[in-house]
Design goal:
single chain, alpha/beta, 12 helices, binds uridine-5'-diphosphate, binds magnesium ion
Length: 336
């Protein structure tokens, strides 16, 4: 298959008033970057307005457009996944439909990718225009808490606006989980990822499609998808409680020995302390198992190979081969 040099992937939910300007600006930016060799993939995420009709009209007039209509509203991250699955470019730009992320930055992002030989150039928000103080504060807090509880280094203040290489995208597509936090998953795959600072603009039209309830859901997907810290809570509490209970027991026994206690108090206190600590300990133990079960259940690949050097290269495709083998089909027929 002949891949276009660039795919631009856009999830759209009730964005009818943005689509025309969006299409014009993306097409202009793409043309400036790669000539005619690009595709624009618009994913209609079960919009309730006229987005699909507008998309069909645009697609009829422009052969660069590929429009996908999902069966219902599946949510931002799944709509984006659908677009990423179906796009075919050598480089992939992910961008929001509301033009908060200026498509004109494509040229600079491609330059950074080429200069630094990067697989992912992720856009970091320096400023956010036209968003409520509440949104900015909660977003800032969210990224910092997430950073503390997860083992995957997920970049701060970074949305899904990013440029990816085909091999990074292929690696990303091997992650099978259902609850998807895409910016974290892309961070997880590794390879060479570099930041790109930009100022986030105001929405072109319409209003945010992320009301509070969706934001909370999104944050929970991120936390639970990239950390088992909440499950470990009981372990931590249990550990502190055992320590504190030990000291308290000494105090209770001493009071009893000195004779200053009401009858029954000593045994009652010892029992309560002992049972509390034991329960937390066992809960924590269950949490540890559950956390591991959860990680197993996600069935992520164990590792991804970036490069292989040396003459035994062909045999190395026996391991994880999708990323390497796909580009190299004619050179090294896959061994499995
Ligand atoms: N979006 C989507 N499905 C949804 C919600 C949002 O495809 O259920 C798209 C939306 O059209 C936009 C992007 O996801 O292109 C980000 O949404 P939005 O701009 O409303 O979020 P905000 O920038 O306010 O965080
Ligand atoms: Mg937006």
């Amino acid at each position: 298959m002949q891949r276009p040099r660039l795919s631009v992937v856009v999830p759209c939910y009730n964005e009818e008033s943005c689509l025309e300007v969006l299409h014009a600006r993306i097409a202009a930016a793409a043309r400036a970057a790669v000539g005619e060799d690009f595709e624009i993939v618009l994913v209609n995420d079960g919009s309730r307005d006229n987005s699909w009709a507008v998309m069909q009209r645009l697609a009829a007039a422009d052969p660069h457009l590929v429009c996908i209509n999902l069966s219902r509203n599946h949510g931002h991250q799944l709509a984006l996944t659908a677009g990423l699955d179906l796009c075919s470019g050598e480089q992939i730009l992910i961008i929001d439909a509301d033009l908060q992320d200026p498509p004109e930055l494509l040229a600079d992002m491609r330059a950074v990718m080429a200069e630094q030989d990067a697989d992912v150039v992720y856009a970091v928000r320096r400023k956010r225009e036209g968003e409520s103080l509440f949104k900015k504060l909660t977003a800032a807090a969210f990224y910092r808490v997430l950073d503390r509880v997860t083992d995957t280094p997920i970049p701060l203040d970074t949305g899904d606006f990013r440029l990816m290489s085909r091999r990074a995208l292929d690696a990303f597509l091997t992650l099978p989980e259902q609850a998807r936090f895409i910016r974290g998953m892309v961070a997880w795959i590794g390879f060479r990822q570099v930041p790109f600072l930009y100022d986030r603009a105001e929405r072109h039209a319409g209003e945010t499609k992320y009301p509070l309830a969706k934001m909370i859901r999104f944050a929970l997907d991120a936390m639970t998808g990239f950390s088992t810290a909440p499950l470990r809570l009981a372990s931590h509490i249990g550990m502190w409680l055992v320590g504190a209970a030990g000291l308290l027991m000494l105090y209770i026994l001493a009071s009893w020995a000195l004779g200053g206690t009401v009858a029954g108090w000593t045994s009652l206190m010892l029992l309560v302390l002992f049972l509390g600590a034991a329960q937390m300990f066992v809960l924590g133990l269950i949490g540890e198992y559950l956390g591991r079960l959860y990680i197993e259940a996600k069935r992520r690949p164990l590792y991804l190979v970036a490069d292989i050097a040396g003459t035994a290269r062909g045999h190395a495709t026996l391991g994880y081969n999708a990323v390497e083998a796909r580009d190299q089909d004619d050179v090294h027929p896959p061994l499995v």
